[in-house]
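Annotated sample (chain length 132).
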Amino acid sequence: MVEQEGVGVVQSTDAHPETCPVLRTADIISGKWTLLILRDLSKGINRFSALERSLAGISPKTLSERLKGLEKAGIVTRRSFAEVPPRVEYTLTEMGWDLIPLIQHMRDYGSKWLNDGHSSASSLADDNAPGA
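Output written by the structure step:
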């Protein structure tokens, strides 16, 4: 970003979009449900079934695909336990934890600008609301 008289101006990425850190980050987190999965992992929800319950409406296939993609990107680690029945837990990596402030900023922005007439204070307080 280039500063001009106190206003941030975004530089063009037309020449080399593959090197733009914003686009590369967006590629990782832009899938439907991905940010909410990261949010829930940051809250300590780490088992597949618990994630599925907390994300009302997500299909098991979609959850599995998103977790695999996040694991491939280095955002999430998957740990299997040799138990019967099998147990698998997901945790955020350091890279994953670095995305959590971005989610908080998005929550703050949505509460401030997209709250549909609800008070900002009540929107911020309800962390368990869908999409929070």
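Annotation: The radius of gyration is 17 Å.
Annotation: The longest strand covers residues 76-81.
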